[in-house]
Amino acid sequence: MTDLHRWRHPAVLDDMFLYHLARLQAAAGSRVVRLCEGGYGITRREWRMLCLLAEAGQLQPSQLAEQAQLDRTRTSRAVTALLAKGLLWKESQVGDARRALLRLSDTGRALHAELFPQVQAINRELMDAVPEPELQAMASAFARIRTRARELEASSPPPKAPRNRRKPAVP
């Protein structure tokens, strides 16, 4: 059976497209994780937030959570860690302390400026394995898959995970 047919009609875990994406992320992303954690003392999640803030200039925590595609709890933990490391500034809004603005500190901007080219190089090395026509087709396919995923999420979101994950969810 071809990979294409297996991805449309998976029979086992290894046939699933999402499983292949997870394996790709684990294999290719490990270099970035080692670079971030070993070289700069930040997690991949913290790196993502630094990049988003570098691009946007400043964001409210809820906007950062949305752009990072994380729940507010995980975002809050990462923001707290970045604040403790001196990589972010948090500015509370006058009259509403809940509406804070986040932006990179000078140290955060310097870290981003130093680390981003290294991550770009890793990305370039990976993409060098794919000829241009295939890369264009892949980008187009990923855009369609992202659109479809958003449509599916909007039409029938899956149930939320139980707060106490130690107990299995039994229908």
TrEMBL record:
The UniProt entry, under InterPro entries, shows: HTH_MarR-typ (IPR000835), MarR/SlyA-like (IPR039422), WH-like_DNA-bd_sf (IPR036388), WH_DNA-bd_sf (IPR036390)
For the HTH marR-type domain, which residue ranges apply? 14-147
Q: Which GO terms describe its molecular function?
A: DNA-binding transcription factor activity
Would you say which domain of life the source belongs to? Bacteria
Output compositional bias ranges, type Basic residues: 162-171
Residue ranges of the region described as Disordered: 148-171
PROSITE patterns, from UniProt?
HTH_MARR_2
Q: Name one Pfam family in it.
A: MarR_2
Q: Which GO terms describe its biological process?
A: response to stress
Q: Kindly provide the name given to this protein in its UniProt entry.
A: MarR family transcriptional regulator
